[in-house]
Design a protein that fits this description.
Layout (H helix, E strand, L loop, with lengths): L7 E5 L2 E7 L2 E5 L4 E5 L4 E5 L4 E5 L1 H8 L3 H31 L8 H10 L17 E5 L4 E5 L4 E5 L4 E5 L2 E8 L2 E5 L8
Antiparallel strand pairs: 1-12, 2-11, 3-10, 4-9, 5-8, 6-7
Length: 190
Amino acid sequence: MTSMPIVQIRQTPGRIGIETTPGSFSIRQPKADLQITTQKADLEIQQPKPELTIDQSRALAAYDGGSHLEMTKRLYSNVQQLFLQGLSQRMKDGERMREFYKPGNSLGEIMKSRSQNTPGFIEYRGAASSDNVDIQVERRDPIIEVTTHKPDIQVQINRPEIEYTRGNVNIYMQQYPSVQFIPPEIDTTM
């Protein structure tokens, strides 16, 4: 049996080549221009003077008796006490004279003791002391007033700079399609 000749068909597929280059973005944004202006704060300071009070009336009273009214008051306040002291001394002398018969109570001795006992001095001056001068300082706090000013802020915004570079697409035939028919060999000999 003879075989039947077969026609061979060879097919080569076509190939398309595609190469792409991607596009690129470039985005830049310059910094904003900022301008700040400030004014100095107004500062006002007031310092009230301190108040100094010196009271030396007690020192003057100890030195020269003080004012006429003060000196008179001191004199009259001491007179009653001096009078009572003198009165009690006279009563004691009277008691001694009544008992003249006792030794030391003779009239001569009583008079001698009276001449030696001088009446007390009426003190019309104030008491002397190192604390007679009163010094008082009244300090006052400073008055501080601050007036602030708001800053002046100016902003200039710069727009972004956007650049786009397009990409490429390259399409080409990498392999062309083909169909090849190969006939069978025919035996021509008979």
